[in-house]
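Internal ticket #5521
Category: modeling
Description: The requester needs a full-assembly model to guide mutagenesis choices. All entity lines are attached below as received. Residue total reported by intake: 489.
Assigned to: D.W.
Attached entities:
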Amino acid sequence: MSGLDVLFLAVGLLTAGSALLAVTAGRVLHAALWLVVALLGLAGCYLVLGAELVALVQLLVYVGAVVVLILVALMLTRAGGVPVVTSGGQRAGAAVVGAATTLLLGTALVGSVGRDRVELTGPDNARVAEGIFGVYVWPFELLSALLLLALVAGVAIARGGGKRS
Amino acid sequence: MPSELPLLVEVALKAAVVLAVFLTMPLALGQLEHKVMGHMQGRLGPMEAGPHGILQLVADGIKFVQKEDVTPAAADRPVFRLAPAVALIPYLVALAVIPFGAAWVAADVPGSLLLVLAVTSVGVIGTLMAGWGSGNKYSLLGGMRAGAQLVSYELPLVIAAASVAMAAGTLSLTGIVQEWSWWWLLWQAPAALVFLAASVAELQRTPFDAPIADSEVVFGPLTEYTGLRFAFFLLAEYAGMVVMALLFTVLFLGGWRGPWDEIAVVGVLWTLLKAAVVGVVFLWLRVAWPRVREDQLQRFAWLVLLPVALLQLAVTGVGVVVLQ
């Protein structure tokens, strides 16, 4: 095992462990904070694999914005300290869905890559930019249009649709 | 920088230097704030500790260490106790990739601008943890204000920085300084103003200090903190000012570029001088301006800063295409 392997194992275990704690935490706000650790760990995984840009965007978007929004929403609704109450059936169902997703993703990955070692060549920033703004420019722009649409629709719904008020 | 050292020794040395800078520069800025504010507002301030009162900061430090470390009974203990560290550490990481000179940078990574923006955006989680964990309604209110403010101002900040990155054609801070030329001062001036305003808001300093407004929410998220934990939050604020001043210098003022910058040390002095001027501007804003109201603050971010930043992005895009 090389140093990188050890590092990857460490951040991988950190990610998996904190993800598990995020799911099992007793309070909603603690779950959100464990989610921060899990997302940081995931950024660490990307970094170890050489995908610097993906790791940083993960940090900027998910930790810096998405989780902050979740935390503010929890504080605004005072739901942060409420204990999480889930029935045994719900827990079992969630566990089954989680395990099935893991299995599906795992087999898809192993099926597509195989068990051979793949050399670590994280794409550099210039190649990511070429991909997004060159080869995949139409899907990228369509996605951004979709997000914009969702945003405008969200504002429209939040304002009560105009007629009812 | 000595490059013939073994890697591990080099890394350890650089980390030690970054830590030393991280611990001294915020204190120097805090000292500057005491004195600049005192003279600008014509108030005497503490003058007994040392000549011209320069040892007051040391006395404050001793006071903080001696104070009792209180955790309120209603607090969410682990969250409350961890919050100062979460607020402080991102700025330490950011400082490691900011170049002081062409070769004076602890870790010269290709995406260093993005790294600084990404890690500094994590600091807000510390403020939110403090707001929640204190178990105090004023802390909670302040925390919510901080969260809303930081998310709103993050956007113009990132877009203003992206404009410079686009102009330079690189995300590396050293690369940006190398590409920089004096007429960028005019070309990127709107971005610079947006960045300055947004960074003051990110640091939650006057005029954008509604989250810790003492006449409304006591001291916001920091209300329940005492002793060293409170001092760590203060250190995070001043370290954040140092990081933002250095980042402004590197992005908009050409970093270490200046007369006689072939000599490495002179380049570093240029960086420090420019950053000190930006730091004084931060202090000046605090002295000169009253606090803006919460709704004015949001209005300013979305209706003024964001359109200006987007317009600047378009201007930069046209400029880059024309220059090519």
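Resolution: model delivered.
Comment from assignee: The longest helix of chain B spans residues 7-40.
Ticket closed.
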